[in-house]
Amino acid sequence: MSDADRYTCDDCGAEFAASAATRTETIGALDSDAWQTLCCPTCGARVKTVFVGRR
Ligand SMILES: [Zn+2]
To answer: Organism's domain of life (predicted)?
Structure first.
């Protein structure tokens, strides 16, 4: 994952790089080691759940 990955918040319209997103563990049964939820750094809304893989 790199700074080239950019997302737009549906709630406030902010654009941000993946590296700037607030990351939280996913809700539910998804493996938190493999999946992370990217949240808007401006308003905190959940924007996307991404696969980060196992290390
Ligand atoms: Zn936002």
So the answer is: Archaea
